[in-house]
Every structure is written in structure tokens, then in C-alpha cells.
Amino acid sequence: MPTNKRKSSAARPAREHEVPQPNSDSVVPSSSIQKQVITSPFVVTLSRQAGNDAHATAAARTIWYVRPDSIWASLAKYRNFTMKDHTYSVHQYAVISRPQPLPEPLHPIDDDNIQCIARILEIRALNPANVYVRVYWLYRPDELRGGRQNYHGTQELIATNHMEIVDALRVLSPIDVVHWKEEQSSGIPQGDLYWRQFYDVTTQMASVNPPCSSELSKCTSELNPGI
What we know:
Layout: E1 13-14, E2 24-27, E3 43-48, E4 62-67, H1 69-74, E5 76-83, E6 86-89, E7 93-98, E8 114-127, E9 130-139, E10 156-167, E11 171-174, E12 177-179, E13 193-200, E14 205-206, H2 216-223
Parallel strand pairs: 2-5, 10-13, 12-13
Antiparallel strand pairs: 1-4, 3-4, 5-6, 5-8, 7-8, 7-11, 8-9, 9-10, 13-14
């Protein structure tokens, strides 16, 4: 069993553009071990980085602290993991069972199987019984403060910097999500889930309206044929 004995005396910030250097190629979480509660012992704290650089991206201005940091730093890193005949890799999208919807409700609900979509950022493990996945959650337009807009398509998601570490046993299935860059594309993604806006959870603000919102009537009819 590979382990990484490096320790950290202070909470270590993590950034999305940091590419984890894996100790091994793959880990297979053990689903034969019955856990009373499938949860992660790690908590991610987000904070805004000081500075007046208006051109810096939200990811570059945000620092995430993982606690307890010494335990997280000691875990071995992997390029991928395999669950139920599916292999999941860093930067892949997945459907994950979550005990609470996104964003967190004011009053928690009693449901342990809410399905959410996330982008995998990092995979770490102590052993096959303890495999953890650091993810960014994707929101649905209805979950934004302003709600769904006319230019939001039926297959549209919103990328966020809402980071969390989940137990790998909560990962249900892979899913395809396309990053639609309108200015570089001649057409709307057909049949695929896609995202084009970014929501910063530290400011609770979404990125500027997509380019197609300037042609609202055309955009609405193409993205939402039923309207």
C-alpha cells in the first residue's frame, strides 16, 4: 500500500491549476466494506486572495484550505480510480450522490441520495477503504441567486469554485459535460450537458452574461425550443 509520509505544519492552500503529482496510477475503492455513513473527514475552506488585479481569474484569486491538513497531505495521490467497471480520472466529470442539495439549503433535508454533477480535481487514498475525491460542483441555473434566465438552455450547467472532498463510494457514474465557448463555436452543443458561465461562491456572483444573451430572442428559441 503506497503512502506519502510528508507532513504539513500549517493548512496547505490548493489551487485548481496545480496538477497533483500521483504516486501511483490507480486505486480501486473497496465497496465490500460496509460504512454506516459514507462521508469525508475533510473540510474545505475558501477565501479570497487580497489584490486589485481586475484581470485575474476567480480561480487565481481564490485559495482553498483543506483541513485536517496533515492527514490530507499524508494521503497517496492517484491518477484515477475504478468503481463498478468505470474508471474516473482527474478533470473528468461524474455524477455524485450528495446528502444535501447545491447550494446548501438553510434547513437541511433528510435525504442521502441527491445526485449532483462535479468535476474531479484530485484523487487521494489511505487504502482501498478510504479513497477521497476533491471536486468542483456544477450548479443548475435554477440554483443561482437570480434563478434561471431565458438564455439558459435545458441542458445547461454552471461551473463553480464550490470545492468539496467526497468519499469515492459516493461516485455513481461518469457523465459527459462540454465547455461551450460561444465565441469559438458555430453552433450550440447538441444533446450534451454543457457549461459556459462561471459562478464564484465567495462573491455569489456569476460571470458576465454569455455572448448569446445579446441576441436574446434568437438564443432563447434555439436553446429552449419549447418557449
